[in-house]
Amino acid sequence: MKFPILKSTNGQWFFRIVASNSNVLAHSETYWNKADARSAAQTIINQAGSGQIVE
């Protein structure tokens, strides 16, 4: 799974959870800081056991 970190149109940050077949499984809430979005994605990766953050 990949976790791309993206900037929304309102300037906030969010991430998607993307499966290996490129299907988007979910997206996060928005965060004011890119670091906060990255931290939330990393928490999911740590709990799930695998994944890759894409910036």
Can you put this structure into words, describing what you see?
Helices cover 27% and strands 35% of the residues. It is α+β, with helices and mostly antiparallel strands and 55 residues long. The mean pLDDT is 93. The protein has a four-stranded mixed sheet with strand order 3-2-1-4, with helices on one face. The longest helix is centred in the last third of the chain and has 15 residues.
Q: Give the beta-strand count.
A: 4
On the 0 to 100 scale, the average pLDDT is: 93
Which class of secondary structure composition applies to the elements? alpha+beta
**Number of DSSP helices?**
1
* Main β-sheet, spatial strand arrangement: 3-2-1-4
> What distance lies between the first and last C-alpha atoms, to the nearest angstrom?
14 Å
Determine the strand fraction and express it as a percent band: 25-35%
Radius of gyration: 10 Å
Largest sheet: 4 strands, mixed
Order of helices and strands: EEEHE
